[in-house]
Amino acid sequence: MPVDASTAALTVQPVGFIRSCYREKFGIPRQPGLATSARARLELSGACNCLEAVNGLGDFSHIWVQFLFHGTQAEGWRPTVRPPRLGGDKRVGVFATRSTHRPNPLGLSVVKLEGIHQDNGQVWLELSGIDLLDGTPVVDIKPYLPWADSVTEATSGFAPEPPENHPVLFTDEALEQCRQYQQQTGHPFQQLIMELLSQDPRPAYLKKRSRSDYGVRLWGCNIRWRVTEKGFEVFSIEREDR
C-alpha cells in the first residue's frame, strides 16, 4: 500500500550535540574540510552516551555526521534558492544546492575524527575540519569509507572548483591579541582566522554594500576585520569570555 506523504511522519532523537568554535552562523565555511583548524566536540547524549556505541569507530580517520540545521530551521524553506557561487542573483532548485533552508532541515558533513574520550560519564568525539554551529543536534554518525564514498569521476555543476582564497592580514595589535589567546587556550587561533576569512564569509548581498568592517565570533572572541585593497585585514580581537 503506498504511503500517504501528507500524513507520514518520522521522529528522530539526537544522538549528541556539537560544542563548536563557531558561535554564530556568519563565518562558518560553506563546506566541511575548508578550515582544517576548526575543532569541535560531539558530546553523545541519552542512551547513546556510552563507549559501546562507538566501539571500533576510532579505527576510522573520518566520519559522516548527520545533523539538524537548528540555526535556520525556523526560517522555513523555498523550492528555489540563490547560491553564493552564482553571486546570489540566480535561482536554482533547493535540491541542487547545500542550502541550510530545506524541506527537512538535515545536513551531512564528513569530518576528521581526532579521538574518542570519556570523562565523568560523558563520552565525546573530538573532531576537526568542521562546519557545524555550536549547539547543533546530531542525529547520526557513520564511518567514512574512501573506497565507497569518494567518486573520482564525479562532476560538480555550478561549483566545479574550491572557493578562491583571499589574502588575510593582521595589524600588530591583532597579532599580539592572537598570540595571547593561543598561549592561554592552546587553540590554533591565527590559523583558523586565516582559513575562514580567506574564503570570504560574506553572503553575496553584503559584498554589494559599502561597509567599513565586519565581525566573526570564534570560541569566546569577536574577530574584527575589514576589506582593504590588499585583502582582508584583522584589526582587533575582542574577548567575550572574560
UniProtKB/TrEMBL annotation:
Superkingdom per UniProt: Bacteria
Entry keywords, A to Z: S-adenosyl-L-methionine
Pfam families: TrmO_C, TrmO_N
Domain spans labelled TsaA-like: 12-153
Keyword S-adenosyl-L-methionine in record: yes
Family statement drawn from the similarity comment of this UniProt entry: Belongs to the tRNA methyltransferase O family.
Protein name as catalogued: tRNA (N6-threonylcarbamoyladenosine(37)-N6)-methyltransferase TrmO
